[in-house]
Design a protein that fits this description.
single chain; alpha+beta; Jelly Rolls; Arc Repressor Mutant, subunit A; 2 domains; ten-stranded mixed sheet; 13 helices; 10 strands; 21% strand
């Protein structure tokens, strides 16, 4: 298993590309999208507009900007001088035919043009893993993101062999590239802020790289070259969870993935995520997930 926590998390989320389309606007316009819940992205090709995500400060988007919403709450998008809002059902819009969507004045050269899209996470632990990511990822001036977005656009328009696999890999790259481009000062409590702290990053790499080890707070503090109390406080503030709670959540995410995708005995899964016996693991898994691992595996 990778010792890189970000790569490990993206691997467990298992993104799958679903849909993308070109969106443009001209004149005065405003749209209000309902809560969607699935991850979505937007890349601005030319022009500018305003984005206001629920419970987040508004953002001016300009050419070259990339935005990722890991859970896509409700949001509004408008011209710089907003028009009368048009309410759009996000789920209905996601099912609409591909092509270009125009907001505001029809015809003529647009004031803003962008690619918008969404995808799905196949992981059963989406809510847990997404909670460790920023609510809004806004990246400006990352040179590789426009290239990846253009590849997503081209691939989504074609019906070539292997399209779904290529899109899934491109979305993985989009996720990793955008998340690691987030400036440290903008990172909310979660995995990105933890990884931006070099001392905490050492502990996170060990937790992700070897979940089978019987880690203690003292051992993880040593990996971070911090005292036990300093490590506990620093980790809890940066990641948003105490170290052992985070480790438990990661072990259970790994266990779910193994049970869902591998034909392994419960005892072997238990060993891979740090439990000395199948019964101890089953008790912990049942408490965390709400059902025993055997039943979970059969349901999947």
């Amino acid at each position: 298993m990778s010792t890189d926590p970000l790569s490990g998390m993206i691997g467990l989320l298992q993104p799958r590309a679903v849909f993308s389309k070109v969106i443009s606007g001209a004149g005065r316009w405003a749209v209000r999208y309902s809560d969607f819940g699935q991850p979505s992205f937007c890349a601005v090709f030319e022009g500018c507009c305003l984005l206001a995500v629920d419970r987040q400060p508004p953002i001016m988007l300009t050419a070259g900007d990339f935005v990722l919403l890991p859970a896509t709450p409700g949001f509004s998008m408008t011209s710089l001088e907003p028009g009368t809002p048009v309410v759009i059902d996000a789920r209905a819009a996601a099912r609409s035919p591909a092509g270009e969507t125009r907001h505001g004045t029809r015809g003529g050269r647009p004031d803003v043009r962008m690619l918008g899209g969404y995808f799905e996470f196949e992981s059963p632990d989406t809510s847990l893993l997404v909670s460790l990511l920023p609510a809004v990822v806004h990246v400006r001036g990352a040179p590789r993101l426009p290239m990846l977005v253009e590849l997503v656009r081209e691939e989504s328009l074609e019906r070539r062999p292997g399209r779904d696999l290529v899109l899934a890999r491109l979305v993985e790259l989009l996720l990793i590239e955008s998340l690691r481009a987030v400036p440290e000062k903008q990172a909310e409590p979660g995995l990105l802020r933890g990884m931006s702290d070099k001392r905490l990053a050492a502990a996170l790499r060990h937790m992700h790289g070897n979940p089978a080890r019987a880690w203690t707070v003292e051992q993880l503090a040593q990996k971070s070259a911090l005292s036990r109390s300093a490590f506990f406080d620093r980790f809890s503030r940066a990641v948003g969870l105490p170290p052992m709670e985070y480790l438990l959540a990661w072990r259970m995410a790994v266990a779910k993935n193994l049970l869902r995708r591998e034909d392994l005995p419960i005892a072997e899964v238990a060993e891979k995520v740090g439990y000395g016996s199948a019964s101890t693991f089953s008790t912990a898994f049942s408490r965390h997930v709400g059902q025993p691992p055997g039943r979970y595996a059969r349901m999947r």
